[in-house]
């Protein structure tokens, strides 16, 4: 397993992404445990610890298996989706193995030995105990004895799964019912009732009294929230940190295997990503151009990234750290290389979507030396520093001492005139809790700051606030406050009128649709005739089988409609009530209905029974999993 992992994860972009994921596991699960979980423990299952190392090791294995199977790089969306699933798998193993023991199942020592040999043998199939021991101790931090017990647990869990999934049997009546459901097809026609096109038939009129009554009963809709004006000062803890060359050399030494890669240029950049589909590409292109205009005009790139980016780096203001040649897709890399530090790119398109790139630093090509790579090594060293709870707490205490002169008795002092070393300050406009502080050094801290301001007295300086990343220490002085108020009726009268018109239009449209249907059914008219009389387009679905998710093609989810169309015997047939899906009204008819091919059923019965049994087995496993979880004591990180 380990050897195949090394050989499979060869793409540099995948390796970079994997490294970031592993670091996020260590930092998120290793240093942010809540409740009663110990350091580095991400879950407890009936008293058994699951650690961040366990999760990382298993996750690496699954990534390798994926790439071996598909023979291509792994999409970021799939990688992100696998993270929680991997932890669920580790939790289930503990539950399943316990249930297996209660059923009398066992895992033999021989089976454990064979499994470990298959995992830790080299490409030639040779197994060396010392090598296996070294890997288990250095990567997982376990003894071989502990690992072997855990492997026995995993094998027992596999046995439990097989017992449930491979012993299912589907009766003849169940099999016929499944076949009928999966092979009965219907085709629908439908008319979307557009209120704008039917306005002349609805005659919607709104009185002044109705508008005022709506305003009076929806005061919260027209509220101007409480707003605050304040001064914000902060110390960048980065500026208090100066690594020794010995620290940086240690990091450099660890990268000795990447020397060829490091000889190229190194880029420190951030990005904003708007993901695209064929349906939304034009909208996303227009949106990212607008975001760039906002940033160039007066807004902070990092704050916009935090608020708008659709990428996992948004929590860090889009920060990608340093990367080299081949780490990013070509279009992204070449655009970043054409920028100077501080510049922001025009929107660019990659397979992921549209990007804006901001470059912070470019290290030119050259030999792998401390002097050349010092900015990147310092960045890595500081990142690791903040991830060490003891070190970051000492740094925070040091920064607190610097701001002591501004707290306590010195409340009249302006934060803008402070002479405290490494401090920065500015005065805001009036902001509500929903607003964004665009000059904030770490956008993640936006709500932290605004919540703090709301609890302060005017003229007071609050207690120091530690940023979520641990990189900044904030001080806030509240200058003024505008209390919550309701906009005057005259100011919002047109908005209220529009809302009343929408409500009345919707009610009248329902009445009109019901009346139209009744008249058509009485006259035995088709949906095509109704569409012609209303001058509305009629659309048709492709033939479809009964959907398990109740999704009607082209329309949306509606369980009642699904039941109705598959129960219809008389075809074609008009559905006898208007159908509302996501606020839109439809008139619907069943055009065609095809019955299953029962001769084909007889010829494929054995194969169908096998697939049905497999599906039934998965359902049984899911039900057992829910039952076992309901009875178990499970504590997850953050829960």
Question: How does this model look, in words?
Answer:
The chain is an alpha+beta fold. It has 23 helices and 21 strands. The strands form six sheets. Strands 3, 14, 15, 18, 19 and 20 form a six-stranded antiparallel beta sheet that branches. Strands 10-5-12-11 form a four-stranded antiparallel beta sheet, with helices on both faces. It starts with a helix and ends with a strand.
In short, what is this structure?
The protein is of the alpha+beta class and about 650 residues long. The chain is built from 23 helices and 21 strands.
SSE blueprint:
Layout: H1 2-8, H2 12-31, E1 41-45, E2 48-51, H3 52-70, H4 76-102, H5 109-120, H6 129-140, H7 144-165, H8 172-183, E3 185-192, H9 199-202, H10 208-217, E4 223-224, E5 227-236, H11 245-254, H12 259-262, E6 266-275, H13 281-297, H14 301-308, E7 319-324, H15 330-338, E8 348-350, E9 353-363, H16 370-386, H17 389-403, E10 423-427, H18 446-454, E11 465-466, E12 472-482, E13 485-486, H19 489-522, H20 527-534, E14 539-540, E15 544-545, E16 551-552, E17 556-557, H21 559-567, E18 573-574, E19 579-581, E20 584-594, H22 598-603, H23 605-631, E21 634-636
Antiparallel strand pairs: 1-2, 1-21, 3-14, 3-15, 3-20, 4-13, 5-10, 5-12, 6-7, 6-9, 8-9, 11-12, 16-17, 18-20, 19-20
Helix pairs in contact: 1-3, 2-3, 3-4, 4-7, 5-7, 10-19, 11-16
């Amino acid at each position: 397993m380990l050897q195949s992992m090394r050989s499979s994860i060869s793409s540099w972009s995948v390796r970079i992404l994997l490294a970031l994921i592993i670091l996020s596991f260590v930092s998120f699960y290793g240093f942010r445990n809540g409740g009663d979980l110990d350091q580095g423990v991400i879950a407890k299952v009936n008293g058994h610890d699951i650690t961040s190392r366990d999760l990382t090791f298993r996750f690496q294995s699954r990534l390798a298996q994926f790439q071996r199977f598909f023979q291509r790089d792994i999409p970021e969306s799939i990688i992100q989706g696998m993270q929680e699933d991997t932890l669920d798998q580790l939790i289930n193993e503990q539950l399943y193995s316990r249930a297996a023991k209660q059923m009398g199942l066992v895992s033999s020592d021989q089976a454990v030995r064979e499994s470990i040999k298959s995992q830790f043998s080299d490409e030639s199939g040779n197994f060396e105990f010392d090598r296996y021991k070294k890997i288990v101790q250095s990567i997982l931090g376990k003894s071989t004895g502990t690992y072997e017990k855990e492997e026995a647990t995993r094998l027992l869990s596999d046995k439990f799964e097989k017992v449930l999934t491979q012993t299912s049997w589907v009766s003849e009546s169940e099999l016929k019912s499944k076949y009928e459901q999966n092979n009965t097809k219907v085709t629908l026609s439908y008319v979307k009732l557009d209120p704008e096109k039917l306005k002349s038939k609805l005659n919607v009129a709104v009185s002044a009294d109705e508008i005022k009554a709506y305003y009076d009963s929806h005061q919260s809709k027209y509220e101007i929230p409480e707003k605050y004006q304040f001064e914000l000062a902060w110390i960048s803890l980065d500026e208090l940190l100066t690594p020794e060359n010995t620290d940086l050399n240690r990091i450099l030494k660890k990268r000795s295997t990447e020397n060829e890669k490091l000889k190229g240029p190194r880029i420190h950049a951030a990005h904003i990503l708007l993901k695209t589909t064929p349906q939304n590409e034009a909208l996303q292109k227009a949106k990212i151009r607008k975001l760039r205009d906002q940033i160039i005009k007066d807004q902070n790139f990092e704050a916009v990234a935090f608020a708008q980016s659709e990428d996992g780096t948004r929590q860090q203001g889009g920060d990608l750290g340093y990367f080299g040649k081949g780490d990013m897709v070509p279009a992204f890399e070449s655009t970043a290389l054409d920028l100077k530090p501080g510049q922001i790119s025009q929107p660019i398109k990659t397979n992921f979507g549209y990007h804006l790139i901001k470059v912070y630093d470019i290290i030119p090509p050259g030999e792998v030396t401390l002097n050349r790579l010092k900015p990147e090594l310092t960045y890595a060293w500081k990142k690791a520093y903040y991830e060490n709870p003891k070190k970051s707490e000492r740094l925070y205490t040091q920064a607190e001492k610097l701001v002591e002169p501004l707290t306590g008795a010195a409340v009249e002092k302006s934060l803008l005139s402070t002479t405290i070393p490494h401090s920065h300050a500015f005065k805001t406009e009036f902001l509500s809790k929903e607003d964004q502080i665009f000059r904030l050094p770490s956008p993640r801290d936006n709500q932290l700051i605004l919540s703090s301001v709301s609890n302060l007295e005017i003229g007071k300086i609050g207690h120091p606030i530690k940023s979520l990343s641990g990189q900044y220490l904030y001080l806030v002085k509240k200058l003024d406050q505008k209390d919550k108020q309701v906009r005057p009726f005259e100011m919002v009268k047109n908005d209220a009128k529009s809302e009343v018109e929408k409500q009345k239009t919707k009610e009248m449209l329902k009445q009109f649709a019901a009346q139209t249907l009744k008249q058509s059914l009485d006259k035995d008219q088709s949906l095509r005739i109704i569409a012609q009389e209303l001058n509305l387009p009629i659309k048709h679905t492709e033939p479809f089988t009964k959907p398990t998710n109740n999704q009607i093609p082209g329309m949306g989810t509606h369980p009642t409609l699904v039941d109705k169309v598959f129960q219809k015997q008389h075809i074609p047939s008009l559905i006898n009530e208007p159908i509302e899906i996501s606020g839109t009204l439809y008139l619907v008819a069943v055009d065609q209905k095809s019955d299953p091919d029962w001769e084909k059923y007889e010829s494929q019965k054995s194969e169908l029974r096998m697939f049905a049994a497999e599906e039934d087995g998965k359902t049984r496993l899911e039900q057992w999993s829910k039952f076992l979880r309901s009875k178990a004591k499970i504590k997850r990180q953050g829960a």
